[in-house]
């Protein structure tokens, strides 16, 4: 595998493959499959975490993984290939956003868990996807006004909160999974610690390809060790079908409830900032000018993919920064490589046996890998906050008080479960929701809405294992106007 990686990287140095170049089929396949390897762990970990939290059966979890991969493939093709004014036509891989994990778990648990919870989640996902799609067609002035609610002090706080709230989810898996008979067993922590150590060693070695797929390799090695010791069961793999087609509304008709929809709209507002940054970053890497209309097309693809995800039993979608780093690392700039990766993902999404293998990953192993990934999310938020003047007391208060609000649901859960209306609890019993809302409101109180064009979107910071392979993206992205009014909306990051 390392030999193949070296070949890919060397070939990429010799020929940068322009963004619109269609490569020969063997190269498309090799480069596309490398994108899938770098992306795979991040793609499947969200349905695994959400499915386990909602107490889904192994068969239902397998279906979620297949649906996710299938929809990821379609979404990536839409983004890279482009359909009319939808899709950035850049090498951007689409994947389920981590921002939605904690809110979806909160929505699902508020709805009682199981497949009934999925129906409420899908109703919110479909609505938020349609809203995002429509939002990207708004006139420039309206678009910029809304996005001025998200300066770096807000986005940095929200991303930090996201990581902090998700880390306990990873730690619970490391302990064996909440509700499992062996929860807290030292054996589970041994698997988690071993997996985490293996991932950190790969990242320390710093080989570009190994670093970019360290999470995936950690899951593979950890599961292999658990299998050899009799703690990974693959019985469901034999019971799974070879071929399985994802059908719309497999679990039933979606339910549209007000509070979950509001929560998912907040999630999509945050992911729009992320996709904007990734679009500018990959544009700089491939040498293609990114204007406001390009970003708008990328956001329309996000919205369309998210709505499609709700229909096809999956979740909200966003451009993946991991694969932006891979484009920089390999210097293979052709967007058709991402189209090839999308085809691979669609094929994997039609193979229930492959999903059953993934679903058999022991909780301890998954927890070790997830904790690393979630810690890196928190780090990305801290990196964004590093660009904020925290010596200003008002900015420090925004960050500090928002973090305190984010910790309330985990610290005093009884307030939400016993002393609050169930519908209201399903919205507010989430550290991400409370932290994000507090950051937005406090920023408005202390800083106001800000001047036109004054919003500085955060510089894109790639994950640590990708950054180890080379320089981080040095493109700074501000939120532009989607209507093609020119570049006045794009300002450099501070």
Automatic annotation (TrEMBL):
<feature type="transmembrane region" description="Helical">
    <location>
        <begin position="61"/>
        <end position="83"/>
    </location>
</feature>
<feature type="transmembrane region" description="Helical">
    <location>
        <begin position="90"/>
        <end position="110"/>
    </location>
</feature>
<dbReference type="InterPro" id="IPR006042">
    <property type="entry name" value="Xan_ur_permease"/>
</dbReference>
<feature type="transmembrane region" description="Helical">
    <location>
        <begin position="397"/>
        <end position="416"/>
    </location>
</feature>
<keyword id="KW-0812">Transmembrane</keyword>
<protein>
    <submittedName>
        <fullName>Purine permease</fullName>
    </submittedName>
</protein>
<keyword id="KW-1133">Transmembrane helix</keyword>
<feature type="transmembrane region" description="Helical">
    <location>
        <begin position="116"/>
        <end position="137"/>
    </location>
</feature>
<dbReference type="InterPro" id="IPR006043">
    <property type="entry name" value="NCS2"/>
</dbReference>
<feature type="transmembrane region" description="Helical">
    <location>
        <begin position="336"/>
        <end position="359"/>
    </location>
</feature>
<dbReference type="Pfam" id="PF00860">
    <property type="entry name" value="Xan_ur_permease"/>
</dbReference>
<feature type="compositionally biased region" description="Low complexity">
    <location>
        <begin position="471"/>
        <end position="484"/>
    </location>
</feature>
<keyword id="KW-0813">Transport</keyword>
<feature type="transmembrane region" description="Helical">
    <location>
        <begin position="149"/>
        <end position="169"/>
    </location>
</feature>
<feature type="transmembrane region" description="Helical">
    <location>
        <begin position="213"/>
        <end position="230"/>
    </location>
</feature>
<keyword id="KW-1003">Cell membrane</keyword>
<dbReference type="InterPro" id="IPR017588">
    <property type="entry name" value="UacT-like"/>
</dbReference>
<keyword id="KW-0472">Membrane</keyword>
<feature type="transmembrane region" description="Helical">
    <location>
        <begin position="28"/>
        <end position="49"/>
    </location>
</feature>
<comment type="similarity">
    <text>Belongs to the nucleobase:cation symporter-2 (NCS2) (TC 2.A.40) family.</text>
</comment>
<feature type="transmembrane region" description="Helical">
    <location>
        <begin position="256"/>
        <end position="273"/>
    </location>
</feature>
<feature type="transmembrane region" description="Helical">
    <location>
        <begin position="365"/>
        <end position="385"/>
    </location>
</feature>
<feature type="transmembrane region" description="Helical">
    <location>
        <begin position="428"/>
        <end position="449"/>
    </location>
</feature>
<feature type="region of interest" description="Disordered">
    <location>
        <begin position="471"/>
        <end position="494"/>
    </location>
</feature>
<feature type="transmembrane region" description="Helical">
    <location>
        <begin position="189"/>
        <end position="206"/>
    </location>
</feature>
């Amino acid at each position: 595998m390392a030999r193949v990686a070296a070949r890919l990287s060397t070939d990429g140095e010799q020929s940068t493959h322009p963004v619109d170049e269609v490569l020969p089929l063997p190269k498309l396949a090799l480069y596309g499959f490398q994108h899938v390897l770098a992306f795979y762990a991040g793609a499947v970990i969200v349905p695994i975490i959400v499915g386990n939290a909602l107490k889904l059966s192994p068969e239902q979890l397998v279906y979620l993984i297949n649906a996710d991969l299938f929809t990821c493939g379609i979404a990536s093709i839409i983004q890279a290939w482009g359909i009319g004014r939808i899709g950035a036509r850049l090498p951007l891989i689409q994947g389920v956003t981590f921002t939605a994990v904690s809110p979806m778990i909160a929505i699902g648990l508020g709805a009682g868990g199981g497949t009934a919870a999925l129906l409420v989640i899908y109703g919110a996902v479909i609505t938020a996807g349609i809203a995002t799609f429509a939002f990207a067609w708004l006139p420039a002035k309206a678009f910029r006004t809304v996005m001025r609610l998200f300066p770096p002090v807000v986005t940095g706080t929200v991303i930090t909160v996201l990581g902090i709230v998700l880390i306990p989810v990873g730690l619970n898996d490391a302990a064996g999974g909440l509700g499992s008979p062996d929860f807290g067993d030292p054996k589970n922590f041994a698997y988690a610690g071993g997996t985490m150590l293996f991932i950190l060693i790969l990242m320390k070695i710093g080989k570009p390809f190994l670093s970019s797929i360290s999470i995936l390799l950690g899951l593979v090695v950890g599961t292999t060790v658990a299998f050899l010791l009799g703690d990974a069961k693959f019985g469901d793999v034999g019971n799974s079908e070879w071929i399985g087609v994802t059908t719309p509304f497999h679990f039933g008709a979606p339910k549209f409830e007000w509070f979950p929809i509001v929560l998912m709209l907040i999630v999509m507002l945050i992911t729009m900032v992320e996709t904007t940054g990734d679009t500018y970053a990959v544009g700089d890497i491939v040498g293609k000018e990114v204007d406001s209309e390009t970003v708008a097309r990328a956001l329309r693809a996000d919205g369309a993919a998210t709505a499609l995800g709700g229909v096809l039993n999956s979740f909200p979608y966003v451009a993946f920064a991991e694969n932006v780093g891979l484009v920089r690392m390999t210097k293979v700039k052709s967007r058709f490589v991402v189209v090839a990766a999308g085809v691979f993902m669609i094929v994997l999404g039609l193979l229930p046996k492959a999903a059953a293998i993934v679903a058999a990953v022991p909780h301890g192993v998954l927890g070790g890998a997830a904790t690393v990934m979630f810690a890196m999310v928190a780090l990305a938020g801290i990196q964004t906050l590093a660009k904020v003047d925290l010596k200003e007391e008002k900015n420090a208060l925004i960050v500090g008080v928002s973090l305190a609000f984010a910790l309330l649901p985990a610290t005093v859960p009884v307030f939400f479960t016993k002393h609050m209306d169930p519908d209201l609890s399903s919205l507010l019993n989430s550290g991400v929701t409370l932290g994000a809302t507090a950051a937005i409101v406090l920023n408005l109180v202390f800083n106001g809405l800000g001047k036109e064009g004054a919003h500085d979107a955060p510089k894109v910071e790639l994950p640590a294992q990708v950054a180890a392979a080379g320089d981080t993206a040095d493109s700074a992205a501000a939120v532009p106007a989607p209507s093609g009014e020119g570049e006045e909306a794009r300002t450099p990051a501070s």
